[in-house]
Amino acid sequence: MKSLMSMKRISVATVALAAASTLLSPASLALAAESTTDRVQAAARCEVRSNGKLYCGNYGGAPLYATRSYDSEVRDYIETTQSVFLCWGRGDRHNGGNNVWYWTNGDMYGRWGNVPAEYVFTSVDPPAGMTKC
């Protein structure tokens, strides 16, 4: 009975893998691997300096919200991929698996706003030593 269950699991896994490989091209798999590698490398370069600010990589095009909520106005965008974040606070839960948001200045209009931590390449949210808003 145990070997029959194992065979069923292998069959399901094989079918799932075959289906995934037909949906994902080699180029999309390479891009996913590259962006994961880039994010890990960028997180290694993130640092909180003695002024309590976070200097870290982020996704370009990240939206900045008026408050720490997706329901608030989008005030600006981060166009650069390396930014300075002044402080952090808690808000809406996001796809980063937590509710940490960072306060920074936007690049398009020069407006200040909050960005969900999922757009910032930190290894821990919030990083130790960073100023809380």
TrEMBL record:
Keywords assigned: Signal
Signal peptide region: 1-32
The protein's name: Peptidase inhibitor family I36
Species of the source: Nocardiopsis tropica
